[in-house]
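User: Predict structure, ligand nicotinamide-adenine-dinucleotide.
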Amino acid sequence: MNSRISTLGDATSSPLSRRQFLQTTSSAAALGVVAAPFVASRSVLGANERLGVGFIGVGGRGRYHLDVVLGMINQGESLEVVGISDTYGPRKRAATEHAKAKAYANYHELLADPAIDVVLIATPDRLHVPQAIDAIRAGKDVYCEKPMGHWSQFALSRQFYQETVKLKRVVQIGNQGNSNVAWKQVRDLIQKGAIGRPQHVQAGYYRYGDWGERMPIADPNAKPGPDCDWEGFLGDAPKVPFTVDRFFSWRKYLDYAGGPCTDLFPHVLTPFISLLGLKFPSLAVASGGIFKYDTYDREVPDTFNMCVDYPQKLSIVLVCTLANEFPTDPAIRGDEGTITMQGPAFEGGFDSVTFIPRKGEKTVIPGSKPNTTLLHWQNFLHCVRTREKPVSDVEFGLYVQAAMNMSMLAFLNKKVATFDTDKLDIVL
Ligand SMILES: NC(=O)c1ccc[n+]([C@@H]2O[C@H](COP(=O)([O-])OP(=O)(O)OC[C@H]3O[C@@H](n4cnc5c(N)ncnc54)[C@H](O)[C@@H]3O)[C@@H](O)[C@H]2O)c1
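Assistant: Predicted complex:
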């Protein structure tokens, strides 16, 4: 029997009808959601007014963002790092000293600070959506790291989308590769009909080694307390006893992460969904497992293959292995030809684009690999000031999230996941 699964791990589910959803999506002006009047977290937000930035989570990725923002400040951008929150005291102290910023006891205290206009969320996956919803309700604009939500949080992700539209907030999801203008070359080729109707996309992520499930244990003797906020780390996750592995190496556990599908594939999938104008998939299947890192307590797969179909008769096939890093060029195939990319680093760009017509000579166009995180911040800040939609805004994030969640749920339940376009919900 079919079961609607998006309420898993999410008590706030309230499925919208298709009509309601269409009223709350499409282009912002035509969305039809009764939007509240726009309220900046401070009373006036002038074009050059200094924006206060708050950081929630300053582990590996959050510290990188902090340096990107400090770099922009050095270059004259009208920004200020106001304050930082992190559940692990030593990291919070190191980051606040580095940025000469305030430290908060927790993220709620940070969100209550009126000097903060925008927040960066770089916490473990399961905390993204709950913290982002709290942030938009507090009147902040949000740069939220990928994945937009945990694999069990589709309904909560949809709620995040709805509230963002209603409250007129600006949200950028951290698929920074989407800010690389090199993708425009691929989009232009497709739009001028170079390959005919696109029908098949094939791409992947290949590494020798892991991507963080063996994240270093910063302190093997850490215990819950003022410097180690276990309850804050758990959020709405199952209340299990504290272990240093869960606290520091959270990527190994399904309660907080999902493996390649949710950690790596958002980077791979996002540009294709964007340039092909895709929305919700019609169907997803997935396979894989723990084929390499068979450690005693690892739960997430290290090998993952997913196949997602879209209503416009197009399949996307993504594969990930950690066996070794040998690359296969991603390809978009249509009736009239194929586009491939060389040296892809989906977070950052690619070396070149090759157009191979079914008949005729191939053309190679140089690509580029800029600092896409910086470009993504610049796009976000521009939109905070102008109230435009960022390149990876929340509606688009929801489409990516749907494909991720459907694939993870198909994998975990060994079923085919479909999408109910009337209820806008995932069905197993
Ligand atoms: N866009 C990218 O290229 C990219 C790269 C790396 C990581 N990420 C994403 O960034 C996120 C963080 O990854 P990471 O590698 O930095 O992990 P990490 O464990 O190094 O950092 C997470 C930090 O969040 C803190 N934290 C946990 N709960 C918190 C809470 N309730 N409030 C405040 N802080 C809290 C932890 O103490 C830790 O310092 C992940 O979701 C990951 O997918 C994105």
